[in-house]
Target: Adenylyl-sulfate kinase
Amino acid sequence: MPLQGAPSISRTTPTARGELNTPYGGGLVDLIVGPDRAAEMKAEAKDHPSLTLDDRSLCDLELLAVGGFSPLTGFLGEADYDRVVGERRLADGTFWPLPVTLPLTPGEGIDEGKTLALRDVYGNLLAFLHLEEIYRPDKGREAALAYGTVDRKPPPVEHLDRTPGHYAAGRLEVIRTPPHYDFVDLRRTPAELRDRLASLGWSKVVAAHGSGLLLRAGEEAARLAARRIGGGLLINPVVGVTRPGDAGHYTRVRCYRALVDGDGPCSPVLNLLPLAGRMAGPGEALLRAIVRRNYGCTHMLVGPGHAGPEADPAGQPSYPPHAALEAMAEHADEIGVQAVESEPMVYLPDDHRYCPAGEVPRGAATVDMASSGMLEGRPDLRRELPDWSVRPAVAEILAQASPPKDRQGLTVWFTGLSGSGKSTVAHALVERLAEHGRRCALLDGDEIRTHLSRGLTFSKEDRDINIRRVGYVAGLVCQAGGTTLCSVISPYRAIRDEAREASRGNFVEVYCSTPIEVCELRDVKGMYAKARAAVAASRPLGFTGVDDPYEPPVDPEVSLDTSRQSVEECVEAIVRKLLDLGYILPH
Ligand SMILES: Nc1ncnc2c1ncn2[C@@H]1O[C@H](COP(=O)(O)OS(=O)(=O)O)[C@@H](OP(=O)(O)O)[C@H]1O
Ligand SMILES: Nc1ncnc2c1ncn2[C@@H]1O[C@H](COP(=O)(O)OP(=O)(O)O)[C@@H](O)[C@H]1O
Model:
């Protein structure tokens, strides 16, 4: 059924010489309502059931709203969906490569004829969907025809398996696109980017995806593509939904920004594409091409394996390496975007320049390049790779993103019986680490139980809660680059392992293995005497080591016995280990 309503579509005339490519279908769809209607909708929203959009649907809504998916004016209804899956065409015959659908579960007020308030996970009201159709897709058919596979499960098919069994469609009214707070100046809408490209006088524009550009060879290939078409270069990474913790996203975009900063009048333009990548190979390449046309592009750089997932463990790719290029070639005229094949570049050290592999002058020396994939998480490459291979500014950002161990967060976790020396050694270690430039917070069991874990008992359940809290806090500090020393009995191995996870492995377990006889002799707080007396009187106290379990670590980084080693020796043993592991540097 065709969708009702009349979204705003700004028509542009076909491309004249010196003008940008027209939007796909002739005009840019704009689903954003005016301020008066937005105010009405906010007031009305409480009367409608809400649907919290998942990451994919959020991105799709954003692209629908701003015209990135023009000429689509909403999620696909059944007739469009069926034909897109079977023939890559909308019901009216327009070429459209992949379904753009809204999965949901009907019921609880979600029915045809009703209005749904679409929200993000934070509850922000984004849009109304006036439900005209709720239909049950044939997901097997979608997997087989749209994604070209049934036996193996590439990411788009896994996504299908996870989503609810119905799709919904109807008129969309959008109050606002999902909010983004990062790189706001790089998130231009199609209309805004078109203005920017037009202001540069560009008519031919080639979009490059991004990831391969971190190395100079990839960057040179993209710049060559722009020269080949006689146009400008748009660096256009597909960012989809990113989360605050996705450090890789910030690092990548910072690197791309370093590529375009201060590069003069022919500088590439950088803009982020809020498309949720499906990793659907050729179908996705076509979808990206259409979206990029809507942003003003005429060409798209396509390399082998474009828009596909990594090969499976047997090395088998989900889509043939050149499938995206072939699909683009087949449909270029219809979608109005040409593929430009990414040419392998080689470096000519004698000439200090890059050149396409097929055009190396006879007899010239060439140098092989590293692949861009090896750059991430390898700060050492900054030293190994010369400037001609990776831009110093990019290398610096990559290095900052993966600081050496001595500048990463750390949790030192002391475990052992009461009186085994955990707190005494931890306090001494705080001072030694400060000497090495590491300032630490100390979470001591006793103290934690007076505030963070106030009211908890020493039952197994409460000890687990207590230790999870300590592990969680230490993990947060660690991930933000800080150091915490935790001194808690933490008698259960499994929960200590959880704490290690929370610190993402930047975790040094120090086992105070002091024998219970010694701990008991010390009996710093008289607790052992109390526990023994209680046991003798058949009123067990559940005191660790007396009548409650302690599970020693299997393979701690450091093992101490404070009945044989002095406090200084214990601290020295830990410092040696931290030096070995690189968490501190010698001074
Ligand atoms: N039943 C029982 N079992 C073990 N310990 C007990 C108990 N009751 C009180 N205490 C005192 O509490 C301190 C240990 O607290 P923790 O938070 O480290 O324990 S746990 O990790 O949650 O098991 C520990 O203090 P420190 O000796 O300073 O470590 C104990 O003296
Ligand atoms: N080598 C040593 N390391 C740590 N503590 C020691 C050592 N030798 C004696 N002690 C004494 O043992 C007691 C250990 O108590 P504490 O550090 O509070 O243990 P825990 O935190 O494991 O309960 C302290 O009174 C401390 O002075």
Observations:
- The pocket of PPS (ligand 1) is lined by residues 418-419, 423, 445-446, 449, 458, 463, 466-467, 488-491, 525, 527, 541-544, 548 (CB under 6 Å).
